[in-house]
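W.,

You were right to be curious about this one. When I first looked at the sequence I had no strong expectations either way, so I just let the prediction run and decided to look at it fresh. Below is the sequence, 601 residues in total, followed by the output.
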Amino acid sequence: MVTLTINNKTIQAEEGASIIDAARKHNIIIPNLCYLEGVNKPEACRICLVEVEGARTLIPSCITKVKDGMKVYTNSERAKKARRIIYELLLSDHPKNCLSCERNQNCEFQKLGAMIQIEDSRFEGEKSKPEIDDSSPSIVRDASKCLLCRRCVIVCNEIQGVGVLNIQNRGFDAVIAPAAELPLNSVNCTNCGQCTLVCPVDAIKEKDSTQTVWDALFDKSKRVVVQTAPAVRAVLGECFAQPAGTLVTGKMASALREMGFDDIFDTNFTADLTIIEEGTEFLNRVKDVLTGKKADLPMITSCSPGWIKFIEHEYPELLGHLSTCKSPHMMLGALAKTFYADKIGVDPKDMFVVSVMPCTAKKFEITRPEMNASGYPDVDAVLTSRELGKMIKDAGVDFLNLSDGKFDDPLGFSTGAADIFGVTGGVMEAALRTVYELVTGRELPFKNLHVTPIVGLERIKEAELKIENPKPEYKFLDGVAVKVAVTSGLAGARFLMEQIRQGKSPYHFIEVMGCPGGCISGGGQPRPVDNNIRQKRLEAIYAEDEGKPIRKSHENPFIVKLYEDFLKEPLGHQSHHLLHTHYTKRGKYNQMMKDSEKKSH
């Protein structure tokens, strides 16, 4: 530890900490813009300049390390004057249409101006060109609003390891874009949307689908079905000023009913269904390998569309390792337009399915031409959690005073195992709860059913589970130590995929979620997101799981009946047609795709 003073207040800080980190831990606020907690600081905006006694110039607090005896002044006349000039220069090249901007009153640049008491800029000059890239079905970039803070560059390159976004050109012509300023849909963007989470303004955001959904709700010829992902119930309250981690499951169901949706279903139902299909697929692959047949191990989960697009671009030769299961919301869309449509006597062409997701990549996923089990798209529109929050307000629904409603049967009942799909490690734990019990006849041997080695926010986690005394039909597993790994964020996925590529992977089963922490911090979730907020959302998801009377997917009575009456068996003909899919070899610039696939995408 080192001792220093900030604004004449003596504090202690860890050696190697930056000035801004030390200040934050002692509740001293240093205005900043490009700073991102826990990652390399780009030193791009210079808003966080401070005066240090003995230093010739003002220094950026985000990259300057503390020293013993250092005397720091964050509010000296010199520091404040420089900060105001820098802000005014940024403001001089920024649109001033705040009232019509989507980020109005939720804009970090706007809040920063209020903090340092700047209302207008004294500087005028040429403006950046208002170039808009809306080529992606998921993400829109507006260069005219970009502050060049480089947050999106840091997230895309260092956190996700994708490297799509970078500074192109120099000086006034500088712009954040893919190489050669190519449109997003032409390069290896995974649509994960982590850039939209960290952008302080409205320069990068999800492509809006709210009007499409309103149009469907107003169309009397359509039966409009809505489903909500596991993570949404733990974050939607934040759109209404509730603390992070507030569960609003019942209020969410009531709000959707008041908005006019005909059927309120839960993606959790098909999360349970995914476990049955995926677990069966895993057992079949392990049996094939142990009996000398060819099968791709480790098997890797397939419910994260950002991850799927990443492997299609970066590791197309390893696509055989993916489970063939569709993601849960695509499964539910397929069932809604076949099983449920037949049950209620509605033509699937007259059914409109809306998914409320934590994820911007889901917007791309529904455009995949293979996702049309009924002859029509499995899902017609995707709303992010942020978009649903806006629509609820637009509808005049008093969200916080709603009574708790319920999802509709038969596609609305779920177990606790489905809830934990929303956090990193949750899909793996849900699978192990079912697979271990099906194989041995015994409950998973972990306290409260939680596989503790894979619980938490670490980038890569692993666990080992030895199978002893299995049922006779699973004798081939006796004595096998099943090794599993879990990662969230695409940089971790790259590490695990390199192991597979080199033939060094020790695992049987791997869970990959495209966003750090899993769906609780998906690209469509309320801002801001940091590890403190992730932890509170994670705890809420586990509380939802622990509060359920049934916590194992194979015990969901509606899933059991679905197989009896409709699907017949896991991995059967009907399941294969409705619930499973195939993948596309793309290459970094989509050069591996066939011409027909390029046109459809």
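Here's what jumped out at me. The radius of gyration is 25 Å. And, maybe more interesting for your project: Residues 267-290 form the longest helix (24 residues).

Coffee later to discuss?

I.
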